[in-house]
Structure formats: structure tokens, C-alpha cells
From TrEMBL:
GO terms for molecular function: metal ion binding; serine-type endopeptidase activity; tripeptidyl-peptidase activity. The lineage of its organism: Eukaryota, Fungi, Dikarya, Basidiomycota, Agaricomycotina. Binds 1 Ca(2+) ion per subunit. The active site is at 289 (charge relay system), 293 (charge relay system), 487 (charge relay system). Secreted tripeptidyl-peptidase which degrades proteins at acidic pHs and is involved in virulence. Residues 1-18 form the signal peptide. This is tripeptidyl-peptidase II. Transmembrane segments: none annotated.
Length: 570
């Protein structure tokens, strides 16, 4: 039998009326176009089951933000009085009417969701593509990331019932198209004859060899990092691991044996896994990024307990990132690490604005708990985390979030200069926070019309600080070699903060927590060595020049341990 056109139309109309989701839908998030690195393959098969996350509007984020600033601003009476897990959860928990509105929508569509965060501001549920298409008034498609061949199910727009505006923050993964994250620039160049130099960190300058080969001894001499072992075992340093980057114990031992002769070579790290993460130890599975991050935390933050958090593939991003899960899991910890070092990131424009904001708010929650969150700024200069074709500058994420500390890279010694790959710039989502307003304004005035129209003058500027990121020696598969990237700078700074936290804890004082209000204060800024030359080219420009004062290449400069110690009074 052949359906006549009239019949076909009648059939479609009937089926549309039959849908249980017949509330009036309004567009909630959209993306103008498919990012250049992705290609649409076709509609997603209707029976495929996807795992969606739904963020509910948080109850009182502005109170959380205020609390974060109060506990992180040195001259505030509440400085250092970090919030408990329950206090944070109470501020961000969705309001009862929000929970009720979302619950009834899901229930009437036969969806059973479970809680995906401590405060209940994230829910998760499995749903077929056909049902999700109807629920969200959209058509999910398969997209191919052509460089990696990895496919994901996404859409360029989705809707929610009009009555849920103000209750639903976002649904994910939908309009976020992240590149498979990887640590760019991290090519490993084997090098023979790497030696530990015995240096007296209180009196010796970094030797000339440090200009071409960065070792722990070089960093100790350059930044005055003590070799004295930390004492407080509850003061932990977390290191994020993604995309099956595994940290190898034997390589760590090789590294310590040769480059930290004063340390017990069996010093190691603890493993924490989520989303099916693992840390297999066969030499061929050692990851450059993971080895770098572990060797420059265990090997610099002497005796600070280091936790390697290996995030597996079963995560909320529906791909291999897991940024959401690692942060929500840290927020749910009774005693989160006092420092969290992450050398991964993406570009701000790949991620939906609502998700960018939601993740950034999650960093604020962990900061309020007293964790210093450090992220690498990226390795593509002004063109984003990796170099790419562009006309306007590409801010990286999460570095553009104002509630974390972004770390750029330097190279050379006496003086240090900006590493040309060091990503920096200004967010298109977050405005300049007040703690850096004066520093950013001074820079923009000096910059004049250079790069005008290529970046957002009202955005949050990053990075905040920097450290060595070129010619950094690591051990990999039993060999020594050199790597470069803000990926190296970040664990170095994280180690310094962790050692400072140990000194504070020895005196019964709280950890430094969210660092930026301190860093940009007169006392904080003067504990950094200003880096005033070099730039970060990209997008066919010379990028931003480093200058006296803060700049979007090296931030406020590189750390001086003794000065930091004096500034915080330990
Ligand atoms: C948010 O919390 C603050 C401080 O606890 C309180 O004064 C304010 O009324 C709350 N606002 C809302 C909308 O709940
Ligand atoms: C969704 O399905 C996955 C398997 O694909 C399963 O591991 C998970 O528990 C399910 N989640 C929910 C909320 O049912
Ligand atoms: C994805 O793109 C790559 C490169 O163009 C191609 O080789 C591959 O067949 C594509 N995969 C799909 C599922 O279209
Ligand atoms: C390191 O140098 C300082 C200052 O010159 C000196 O007081 C100290 O004894 C030296 N330490 C070692 C282990 O040589
Ligand atoms: C510039 O940044 C502000 C936030 O500071 C944002 O509201 C605005 O949309 C951004 N402009 C562009 C063109 O992205």
C-alpha cells in the first residue's frame, strides 16, 4: 500500500500530538556553525543510547562567589576561613522549586535521573537519541573530528520547555565540541648525559647550563625552592591525568635517582581513579604528560604527598575529557588536595557558554574549600591551546575562568623571557575580575592600539603567573629527554604552592586556597620576578608583548620562594 500525501501528513500530525513532551519549547543553547575541525556525518541512529547530564540552576552562586573572595583576599577578616563541604553544597544546591520543576518534566517523560554531584545541581540519565530529539526539540547528529577520526553525537541547538527557563542551566553533551585534548608541544627529545648538579639553593645561582636544560636543581636555584622535606602528611597535591596518560613509577625512580640524589628514590605517589581510570605500568604505556606532571611534583615538592587522579573514558563529557567529573569529585571530597595541578585544556569557543560558566563556578566551589587550582595556559600563543589558523585571538579554557590560577611559560635564565608558545589573552565570556583590574588596565594602556579588534579588552586576562617551560628534562621509558610546554610550568608552580602550604600547616595555619587576590596584591606581586621581554605570536601576528608589570604572556612573572614565604609570613 502506498500512503497518499494527505494520509502521510495526517499520520505525522497525529504522532506529534501523541508525544508526551507537548510543552512549548524555547531554544536554550545554540552554536552558529560546526567548528572547522569537525564534519557532520549524518543523523545519529534513533536507538543509540546517550548519557546526558543536566545542570540545574544553582541556588545562590553569588553568595558562594562572595564567600570565595572573602576567604581568599588577604586583608579580609575572613581570610583563610575556608568553607566546609556542607557549606559549599548549601550555597549551590538548587532551590526546591527548581528541583520540583525539573523532576516533574523528567517524570512526565518517563525519565529516571540520578544525582551526579554532591549538591544535586547535576543530574544524569540515559536516553535514546529518538527520545532525546523529541524531549529537546532537536536532531542529534554524528560529528567526526576529522584529524582524530573520533566521532561524537552532538547538535547545534536544543530547546527546553519555556516554563523551565531559569531552572535548567544546561544539558550536556549537546552543543559543546571539544577537540580531543592532548598535551601539544610535548615532544620528547632524548638526551644523553643528564646530570644532577649539587647546588646550594641559598647561595648558588642557576648555572649557565640551566638556560638549555631545566632540571629540579635549576628550578631550586632559579626560584629558591627548598630541598627541605615537607612534614604535614595531610597537605596533599593533586595531579590531574586524562586521556590515558599514565604516570610510570619506574621512570619516577629513574628521575629521582639521577636528579634528586638527596631524596629517597622510592618516593612515589598515590593513585586515585574515577570514570574507570587506571594507571598501568608497562614502560610503553608511560605518558609524556603524566610523567612530566608527576616528576615535577614528586621531584620538586619534596615529600609532599602527591595524588595522581587518573580519569578514565566513562565520563560526563561523552568523550575523553572528564573535566566535569574530576571537579565534582574533588568538591565531594572531605579533604580535597590543597593544590590541584592540571596541564590540560581546550579553547573557550569549543565549549558552550553555559558549560564554560558552570565549570568555572565549580572551580570557585573548590577554591572556597581552600584548594589552589592551577591550569596551564596552553601552548599556541594567542591562537589557543595549540597553534592554529585564526584571524582573531583564541582564548583558552579554563584559563579564562577568573576563579583559578593560569600558568604561562618562560624560557632561559638571567633574565627569563616569555616562551613564545605561552598562551595568553582575554576571555570572551568572563569580564576582568576586580582583583586584576588595575594590572590589566595598566597593560592595555601601554599596549595602545596593537592587536586592536583581535581580542576582547573587557575580558579576564590570563595567565596569572609563569614558570620555566622549555627544555625541561624528564625520564620516559628509562631514557632522559627534553620537553616544552606550559604543561611543565604548571606542576612546578603547584609544587611551590604545596611547599608553602606545608609551612603554613606546620604552624597550624590554613592553606593558601584560591591564590589570585593574593597574587595581584602589592605584597603578592612583589614576590614574583617580572618577565619583561618576549611575546606569544599566533594568528599571523606577533601576539602580545611581555612588559613590565602583568602581561598576557607571563602574567605577574615567576615565583621567588623566599619572597613568597615572607609575603605570607611563614
Ligand atoms: C544568598 O545567600 C546570602 C548569604 O547567605 C543571603 O543573604 C541571600 O539572601 C541569598 N540569596 C538568595 C537569592 O537566596
Ligand atoms: C547509563 O548507561 C551506562 C552504560 O552505557 C551505565 O554504565 C550507566 O550506569 C547508565 N547510567 C544511568 C544513569 O542509568
Ligand atoms: C572521519 O574523517 C576521517 C578523515 O577525513 C575519515 O578518514 C573517516 O572515515 C571519517 N569517519 C567517519 C565515520 O565519517
Ligand atoms: C649554602 O650557602 C649558605 C649561604 O652562603 C651557607 O650559609 C650554607 O652553609 C650553605 N649550605 C651548604 C650545605 O653548603
Ligand atoms: C567580551 O567579553 C565580555 C565579557 O567581559 C562579553 O560579555 C562579550 O560578549 C565579549 N565580546 C565578544 C565579542 O565576544
Amino acid at each position: 500500500m502506498k500512503l497518499s500525501p494527505a494520509l502521510l501528513i495526517a499520520f505525522l500530525v497525529a504522532s506529534a500530538y501523541g508525544k508526551p513532551t507537548a510543552r512549548s519549547l524555547v531554544v536554550h543553547e545554540t552554536r552558529e556553525s560546526i567548528p572547522a575541525s569537525f564534519k557532520e556525518v549524518g543523523p545519529a541512529p534513533p536507538d543509540t543510547v546517550i548519557n546526558l547530564r543536566l545542570a540545574l540552576a544553582q541556588g545562590n552562586f553569588s553568595a558562594l562567589e562572595k564567600a570565595l573572595m572573602d576567604v581568599s583576599t588577604p586583608d579580609s577578616p575572613l581570610y583563610g576561613q575556608h568553607l566546609s563541604k556542607a557549606e559549599v553544597a548549601a550555597l549551590v544546591a538548587p532551590k526546591p522549586e527548581t528541583v520540583a520543576a525539573v523532576d516533574s518534566w523528567l517524570t512526565e517523560n518517563g525519565i529516571q535521573a540520578s544525582k551526579a554531584s554532591l549538591a544535586g545541581d547535576w543530574l544524569k540519565f540515559n536516553i535514546t537519541v529518538s527520545k532525546a530529539n523529541a524531549l529537546l526539540g532537536t536532531t542529534f547528529s554524528i560529528f567526526n573530528h576529522t584529524q582524530s577520526g573520533r566521532t561524537s553525537i552532538r547538535t547545534l541547538a536544543y530547546s527546553i520547555p519555556a516554563g523551565l527557563k531559569g531552572h535548567v542551566d544546561l544539558i550536556h553533551p549537546t552543543t559543546t565540541f571539544t577537540q580531543p585534548i592532548h598535551a601539544p608541544k610535548l615532544t620528547f627529545t632524548p638526551r644523553k648525559g643528564v646530570q644532577a648538579r649539587a647546588l646550594n639553593v641559598t647561595s648558588d645561582a642557576a648555572p649557565a647550563s640551566c638556560a638549555t636544560t631545566t632540571t629540579p636543581a635549576c628550578l631550586q636555584a632559579l626560584y629558591g625552592i627548598p630541598t627541605t622535606p615537607a612534614q604535614v602528611t595531610t597537605n596533599t597535591l593533586g595531579v590531574s591525568g586524562f586521556i590515558e596518560q599514565f604516570a610510570n613509577q619506574q621512570d619516577l625512580r629513574t628521575f629521582l635517582t639521577n636528579l634528586r640524589k638527596d631524596m629517597d628514590p622510592s618516593t612515589t605517589f598515590e593513585l586515585f581513579t574515577l570514570d574507570g581510570g587506571t594507571n598501568p605500568q608497562s614502560p610503553s604505556q608511560a605518558g609524556i604528560e603524566a610523567n612530566l606532571d608527576i616528576q615535577y611534583t614528586v621531584g620538586i615538592a619534596t615529600n609532599v604527598p602527591v595524588i595522581f587522579a587518573s580519569v578514565g573514558p566513562d565520563n560526563a563529557d561523552g568523550d575523553d575529557a572528564g573535566f566535569l567529573d574530576i571537579i565534582n569529585s574533588a568538591i565531594a571530597c572531605d579533604t580535597p588536595p590543597t593544590v590541584l595541578s592540571t596541564s590540560y585544556g581546550g579553547n573557550e569557543d569549543e565549549i558552550s557558554t553555559n558549560l564554560v560558566t558552570n565549570l568555572c563556578n565549580a572551580y570557585a566551589q573548590l577554591g572556597a574549600r581552600g584548594t589552589s587550582i592551577l591550569f596551564s595556559s596552553g601552548d599556541g600563543g594567542v591562537s589557543g591551546t595549540q597553534s592554529q589558523q585564526c584571524t582573531t585571538f583564541v582564548p583558552s579554557f579554563p584559563s579564562g575562568c577568573p576563579f583559578l590560577t593560569s600558568v604561562g611559560a618562560t624560557s632561559g635564565i638571567a633574565p627569563e623571557v616569555a616562551a613564545s608558545f605561552s598562551s595568553g589573552g582575554f576571555s570572551n565570556v568572563f569580564p576582568t575580575p576586580s582583583y586584576q583590574a588595575a594590572a590589566v588596565s595598566q597593560y592595555l594602556t601601554a599596549l595602545g592600539s596593537t592587536n586592536a579588534g583581535r581580542f576582547n579588552r573587557s575580558g579576564r586576562g590570563f595567565p596569572d603567573i609563569s614558570a620555566q617551560g622549555e627544555n625541561v628534562v624528564i625520564a620516559l621509558q628509562g631514557q632522559f629527554g627534553l620537553v616544552a610546554g606550559t604543561s611543565a610550568s604548571t606542576p612546578i608552580v603547584a609544587s611551590i604552592i604545596a611547599l608553602l602550604n606545608d609551612l603554613l600547616a606546620q604552624q597550624g595555619k590554613p592553606p593558601l586556597g584560591f591564590l589570585n587576590p593574593f597574587l595581584y596584591s602589592a605584597k603578592g606581586a612583589s614576590a614574583f620576578t617580572d618577565v619583561t621581554s618576549g611575546s606569544n605570536p599566533g594568528c599571523n601576528t606577533n601576539g602580545f608583548p611581555a612588559r613590565a608589570g602583568w602581561d598576557p604572556v607571563t602574567g605577574l612573572g615567576t615565583p621567588n620562594f623566599a619572597a613568597l614565604r615572607a609575603a605570607i609570613g611563614v
